[in-house]
Amino acid sequence: MSDSIFALASAPGRGGVQVIRLSGPDAGATLGHLTGRPLPPPRQATLASLREPGSGEVIDKGLVLWFPGPASFTGEDVAELHLHGGRAVLSAVTDALTTLGLRVAEPGEFSRRAFENGKLDLTEAEAIADLVDAETAAQRRQALRQLDGDLGRLYDGWRTRLTRALAHLEADIDFPEEDLPGGLSDAVRPVVEGLAAEIGAHLADNSRGERLRDGISIAILGAPNAGKSSLLNAIARRDVAIVSNTAGTTRDVIEVHLDLGGYPVLLADTAGLREAAEAIEAEGIRRALDRASRADLKLLVFDGSRWPLLDPATLALLDEDALPVLNKADLAAHPAEPVVGGRPALPVSAATGQGLPALLSALGSEVERRYAPSGAPALTRARHRSALEDCRDSLLRALSAPLPELAAEDIRLATRALGRITGRVDVEELLDVIFRDFCIGK
Ligand code: GDP
Ligand code: ZN
Question: DSSP strand E in 55-175: where?
Fold first, then answer.
């Protein structure tokens, strides 16, 4: 039997309305105590005055809702208080609820109770956190889809197929009809092969879902004074990077978060690529190159006023993940449709803003082309990826196992790995870590 908890479910601070959520066996009695009235009909907003338990003084007047378990978010008895948003009201309600024996909830404790009471699987609980954190439309859509259970159903479906294959294999072991050449019979082998291939394809998805969740990284690279910092500022339309006339002043990596047509993008300015005299600058360049190697996309900035001279260190980074840009188009010495390293380059001017809409739209279509959602739900977390890798490795071992008993053990491991993702098995030790990252009141 769990204790009863409460927390502010809306954002803290002043506001039109704040929502305080109660969950646990005492939620109903507490609501009755605060209002001094019988419980309202389930799931109906009812106007009520809330009173201090000791003095009977009115704390606030607002709407109260009563959700008797198990048909509630957590599966327990739940009550919601929709009160005027503000600190004094919150602090009076907090005192009252504490006096009545309720405890302030830990971060994620409501979702954790929902999971433990079977209202959500782990992927759905994680989707709630993602939806709360979503900053762009594509992130919101992905989280919502996962909250609808698309990802959980995919993994549970695979797990069911494996469980059936395992039952078949165990029957083969108990009642052998044929001498099995390897570990798996003709009925089981195609199932395991098919699943290994499906999981392999799901893993090799360009980390689409993880990128959408964490942000797509674009590094701005180029020689000192090419105009990288100016370009970042012009794109972000705010002063985030230091712009100066002295070469080599952007010493560390400066990052801005952009919403590019609904996709979350982390755009990073880097130190200029050149032979550095100063140690601190050399460190900046090392970081720039490190950024370049880890970035999903690279914006290669050339100084267009020096045409036809192109910085060789920047040119060396031109690959299929790079977009060449000729900056300082206001001083243009280059042709109208310049070609850099065999690729069309976009003329832009950080100073006048010329070419920026075209640059943003080119970046936007590139991001869309790479990360637009496909038909199948996307893999969204490193936790899921590592469990799926374990699963696929076990399946591959099962396929080459010399004995059916060994293959069965591998398939059992593969099934467990899938079960860990949705929280069917082996999760006790994971839950603290998973729910710790949630906000309070979720
Ligand atoms: P970074 O070292 O690549 O980050 O270059 P900065 O952004 O610091 O710019 C270097 C110099 O070029 C500064 O004096 C900027 O004002 C100038 N600059 C940057 N972009 C443009 C541009 O589009 N046109 C002109 N005329 N000057 C620019
Ligand atoms: Zn700079």
Answer: 58-67, 78-85, 103-104
Q: Is 230 in the pocket of ligand 1 (CB under 6 A)?
A: yes
Interval 163-174: pLDDT, tens: 999 998 888 888
Report the C-alpha gap between 268 and 284 in whole angstroms. 13
Instruction: Establish whether residue 354 lines the binding site of ligand 1, counting it when its CB lies within 6 angstroms of any ligand atom.
Output: no
Q: Which residue, judged by its Cα, is nearest atom 17 of ligand 1?
A: 227
Q: What pLDDT sits at residue 281?
A: 63
| Ligand 2 mean position, distance from CA 219 (Å) | 12
First-residue to last-residue Cα distance in the chain: 20
DSSP 237-303: TS--S---SSTT---S-EEEEEEETTEEEEEEE----S--SSHHHHHHHHHHHHHHHH-SEEEEEEE
Q: How far apart are CA 89 and CA 111, in angstroms?
A: 25
State yes or no: 69 annotated in a binding site. no
For residue 282, which of 315, 312, 252, 318 has the smallest C-alpha distance?
Answer: 252
- Pick from 387, 360, 347: nearest CA to 236: 360
Tokens 């106007």 correspond to: 47
5-105: CATH, from 3.40.630.30, 3.30.1360.120, 3.90.25.10, 3.40.50.12780: 3.30.1360.120
In this prediction, residue 390 carries a pLDDT of 97
CATH fold of 212-371 reads: Rossmann fold (3.40.50)
- Tell whether the torsion through CA atoms of 109, 112, 116 and 119 is positive or negative: positive
Q: Where are the domains of the chain?
A: 5-105, 123-205+379-435, 212-371
| Block residue for tokens 């970035």 | 295
Question: Which residue's alpha carbon is nearest to atom 18 within ligand 1?
Answer: 227
CATH number of 123-205+379-435: 1.20.120.430
Give 337-350 pLDDT, tens digit per residue.
899 999 999 999 99
Query: Cα separation of 104 and 127, whole Å?
Result: 23
Residue owning the nearest CA to atom 6 of ligand 1: 227
What is the ipTM for the molecules in this complex? 0.99
Whether the model pTM is above 0.95 = no
Mean pLDDT of the chain: 89
d(CA 440, CA 442): 6
- Residue 334 tokens read as 């280059």
User: What's the pLDDT at 253?
Assistant: 58
80 labelled binding-site residue:
yes
Distance 248 CA to ligand 2 centre (A): 7
Do the beta carbons of residue 234 and residue 282 sit within 8 Å? no
